[in-house]
């Protein structure tokens, strides 16, 4: 039977890989939060699907909303998750991306290779011009270089920034303002795989430029505020699964016990009492295996 070697030389059998193990390990440090742990975990997994989930965790301050989210997020590759504390309503449209133009088929392609090809042609023309004594050839190459430089400038000026969000999860760790949720609504509707945003660029003169968001990210936000008075709250309800942490005396009692153990016990004792490093390491392997085989 296939097995995976861990850091402490112990093995995990292939048929032991399951999500329940991951949830059990997480809830050792987040007691009574099995339901919320599952919801966050499944939302993060859904980012790789064609129709990702969106999760809103709404509860008063101090109920452990972000704690569970962070425990789950730590298991996933950092490149797959974008954690945000705050964001303006248009900031998502200005994230780093790839400069692109449309080809003859109407698809966006990177301008990087086209620019490199033009620069190679310019360099070749300059070499021919420098090595020739023919005045007519020199003049022809000079005009050709100017045409190529004009093409390069036109491509750069007409390019748009493509921001790829496919397979990503956006996580807002603090209550996002209502206007930010409103700005995200077209993206969350999953109607179009590409959404374009035009803005005025004042660098080197005033001109209109466009950025494109491609793909459907999964979205998770935690909030202590009440959105029910927002005129677009019905849309939030349609696009998000709205949930909350467990709020019970039993949970508070167990959570106090975990906190006490964490800050009062030596590390070796904490590992014996609550959760071991092997279990932490193993749950990451379970996530990697599950992502590869889902």
Would you kindly provide a written description of the structure presented here, covering whatever features stand out?
- This protein is an alpha/beta fold.
- The protein folds into two domains: 3-97 and 164-191 and 217-293, P-loop containing nucleotide triphosphate hydrolases (Rossmann fold); 112-158.
- 46% of the residues lie in helices and 19% in strands.
- It is built from ten helices and twelve strands.
- A five-stranded parallel sheet has the order 4-8-11-3-12, with helices on both faces. Strands 6-5-7-10-9 form a five-stranded mixed sheet.
- α1 runs antiparallel to α10 and α2 (34-46) crosses α3.
- The radius of gyration is 26 Å and the shape is elongated.
- The protein starts with a strand and ends with a helix.
- Mean pLDDT is 84; it is low at 1-16.
Fold topology:
Blueprint: E1 3-5, E2 11-13, H1 19-29, H2 34-46, E3 54-58, H3 65-73, E4 81-84, E5 98-102, E6 108-110, H4 112-131, H5 135-158, E7 160-164, E8 169-172, H6 178-188, E9 194-201, E10 207-214, E11 218-223, H7 233-239, E12 241-243, H8 249-264, H9 267-273, H10 277-293
Parallel strand pairs: 3-11, 3-12, 4-8, 7-10, 8-11
Antiparallel strand pairs: 1-2, 5-6, 5-7, 9-10
Helix pairs in contact: 1-10, 2-3, 4-5
The separation of the N and C termini measures 20 Å
Query: What is the helix/strand order?
Result: EEHHEHEEEHHEEHEEEHEHHH
Corresponding CATH architecture of the largest domain: 3-Layer(aba) Sandwich
- Number of domain units: 2
CATH top level class name of the largest domain: Alpha Beta
Estimated share of beta-strand residues: 15-25%
Structural class: alpha/beta
């Amino acid at each position: 039977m296939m097995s995976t070697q861990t850091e402490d030389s112990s093995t995990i059998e292939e048929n032991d890989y399951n999500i329940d193990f991951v949830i059990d390990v997480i809830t050792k440090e987040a007691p009574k939060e099995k339901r919320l742990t599952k919801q966050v975990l499944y939302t993060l997994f859904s980012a790789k699907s064609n129709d990702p989930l969106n999760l809103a965790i709404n509860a008063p301050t101090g109920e452990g909303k972000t704690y569970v989210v962070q425990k789950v997020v730590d298991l996933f590759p950092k490149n797959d998750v974008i954690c945000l504390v705050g964001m303006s309503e248009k900031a998502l449209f200005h994230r780093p991306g790839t400069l692109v133009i449309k080809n003859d088929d109407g698809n966006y392609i990177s301008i990087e290779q086209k620019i490199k090809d033009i620069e190679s042609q310019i360099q070749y023309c300059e070499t021919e011009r420098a090595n020739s004594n023919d005045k007519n050839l020199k003049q022809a190459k000079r005009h050709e270089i100017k045409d190529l430089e004009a093409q390069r400038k036109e491509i750069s000026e007409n390019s748009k920034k493509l921001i790829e969000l496919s397979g990503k999860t956006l996580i807002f760790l603090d209550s996002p303002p209502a206007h930010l949720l409103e700005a995200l609504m077209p993206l969350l509707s999953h109607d179009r795989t590409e959404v374009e945003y035009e803005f005025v660029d004042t660098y080197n003169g005033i001109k209109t430029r466009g950025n494109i968001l491609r793909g459907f990210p999964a979205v998770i936000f935690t909030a202590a505020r009440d959105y029910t008075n927002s005129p677009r709250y019905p849309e939030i309800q349609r696009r998000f699964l709205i949930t909350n942490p467990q709020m019970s005396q039993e949970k508070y009692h167990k959570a106090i016990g975990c906190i006490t153990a964490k800050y009062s016990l030596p590390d070796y004792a904490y590992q014996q009492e609550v959760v071991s490093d092997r279990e932490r390491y193993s749950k990451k392997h379970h996530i990697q295996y599950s992502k590869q085989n889902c």
